Amino acid sequence: MSERLEDIAVRMVAGGRGLLAADESTGTIGKRFDTIGLQSTETSRRDYREMLFRTEDAMRQYISGAILYEETLHQKAADGTPFVDIIRAADSIPGIKVDIGAKPMAAYPGETITEGLDGLAERLAKYYEAGARFAKWRGVIAISPTLPTWGSMKANAHALARYAALCQQANIVPIVEPECLMDGKPGDHNIDRCAEVTEWTLRTVFEELADARVSLEGMILKPNMVIDGKNARKASVAEVAERTVEVLKRTVPSAVPGIAFLSGGQSSEEATAHLSAINSGYDLPWAVTFSYGRALQDTALKAWGGKPENVAAGQRAFAHRAEMNSLAAKGSWKKDLEQAA
Ligand code: 13P
After folding, report:
1. Taking 90 as the threshold, does the pLDDT of residue 185 lie above it?
2. First to last CA, the chain
3. What Gene3D superfamilies does this protein map onto (predicted)?
């Protein structure tokens, strides 16, 4: 298997496969487990993620790579097999979240700056050693009538670009994720405002990537879709697709091999429907697929419920969403396939 950045980046987005974002920090997975009344321990986190990674047929057919949290990268399944080996055995690529979170930004109330650049070069060398071939860093852009500010925009785009350059130096493909929030507070902005902020964000990010000498061929972009805020849902699936494609075409160079969307709090089926609409009816210069966390996992987590006897049910739910999103990545998802299942 080629180890060139460009080839890994293409593998991450090709053939209707997409990424499983299973990189919830210990705090975030704890919140997810709260919804099923399960205590988050190293063992329960292992059992849950083992269930996903061992859904072997679905992983092989639909999941090109799994984004892991540091604990998971080094973790072993109950029988002692490293997760990294299980993922690779399904012809999928292990990746790693390397930022250490979005922290309140000094002097910028209501905005955050993502941290984790200090010592990153050394950490990346260790992650490569442990088997990671791509990484993720998420910058967060809050939307309100007065936000984002230029100061926060610039700082987050700069950090994303510095991260991406360090990854490429370590022979790791960077997933560059600037997320304009749909589910933050107040969440009542409309699709026009989301389009305006997303376009500004992506333009700023690609300027910073150029200044940091990041190779566009060796990266993946993970953006939000252009969508109404969570408290203002109105736009049709067709409109979300049209507005999203418009903004991406204006801002994302065609040298970028792939775009893998985050789901950002959309329901599982919405995230699938939007991706499918984006992939049908438009002539796109990039491969466009999914890098979903909640939209791939929510139904599986619920079906599992933390009970060993429900592992098969959890795997069926995960396999179903993975298959639906793979169809969407080829523009051929249909709503009746959901009902049939
Ligand atoms: P969601 O798809 O749940 O938004 O998660 C994707 C992700 O990796 C966010 O950083």
Report:
1. no
2. 35
3. Aldolase class I
